């Protein structure tokens, strides 16, 4: 489920408001000036929603909405599908072949890898499984074990991360820093980053990517190791 209604949280992680993307398209300065800390707390408190083909109307009816009465907007899914066709993005089944996943040769094969109830809907929209658009097929695929996405999407995401790193000759761990400097960079946590770059966040859980729990409780920002620039100081 893709939703764009973020809850705003106080310092002790209590909800004190909400933030709708529908009402704030193309207004990042307003968000930064008014809700930075509340949004950071919300992003580190709320659970991530499932990755699937269910999308909020904020994206399907009000994308890039600029009308003062919020009457209408564009459809993100339709645009994404059309753009992939315009740019010649291969079909879902072609990407499965690229990722060396099992070929789809029958409805039975398709049913084994798609979420329940989706195959009949797909076959009403496409003449054959080889016509399924990448975005549609990838989002309807059953999730891989231990992942939030299916095998095809996991393959694509992994490939993109590898290519982005390899193609960037200035990537931070490719002979740009000394081992001491690299160790300092790797010691910086997201929790500490939020503490140092927010307006007034004084407590944060150690593992900011994970929600609060008994093993991941909030700690004072001062308890996190400081990021030192000492290793970058030139000797005079």
From TrEMBL:
PROSITE patterns: PEROXIDASE_3
Biological process terms in GO annotation: response to oxidative stress
Protein's UniProt keywords contain Oxidoreductase: yes
Entry keywords, A to Z: Oxidoreductase, Peroxidase
Superkingdom field: Eukaryota
A GO molecular function held by the record: peroxidase activity
PANTHER family to which the protein is assigned, alphabetical: GH11385P, OXIDASE/PEROXIDASE
Protein name as annotated: Peroxidase
Lineage start: Eukaryota, Metazoa, Ecdysozoa, Arthropoda, Hexapoda
């Amino acid at each position: 489920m893709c939703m764009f209604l973020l809850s705003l949280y106080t310092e002790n992680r209590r909800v004190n408001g909400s933030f709708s993307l529908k009402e704030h398209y193309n207004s990042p300065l307003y968000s930064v000036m008014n809700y930075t800390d509340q949004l950071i707390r919300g992003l580190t408190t709320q659970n991530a929603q499932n990755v699937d083909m269910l999308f909020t109307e904020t994206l399907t009816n009000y994308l890039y909405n600029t009308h003062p009465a919020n009457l209408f907007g564009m459809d993100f899914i339709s645009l994404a599908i059309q753009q992939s066709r315009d740019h010649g993005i291969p079909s879902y089944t072609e990407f499965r072949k690229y990722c060396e996943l099992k070929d789809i040769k029958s409805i039975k094969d398709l049913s084994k890898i798609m979420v329940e109830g989706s195959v009949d809907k797909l076959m009403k929209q496409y003449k054959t499984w080889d016509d399924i658009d990448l975005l549609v097929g990838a989002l309807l695929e059953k999730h891989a074990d231990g992942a939030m996405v299916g095998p095809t999407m996991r393959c694509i995401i992994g490939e993109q991360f590898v290519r982005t790193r390899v193609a960037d000759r200035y990537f931070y761990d490719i002979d740009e820093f000394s081992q001491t400097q690299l160790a300092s960079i790797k010691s910086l946590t997201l929790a500490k980053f939020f503490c140092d770059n927010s307006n007034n966040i004084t407590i944060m859980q150690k593992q900011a990517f994970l929600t609060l729990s008994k093993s991941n409780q909030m700690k004072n920002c001062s308890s996190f190791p400081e990021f030192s620039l000492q290793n970058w100081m030139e000797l005079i």
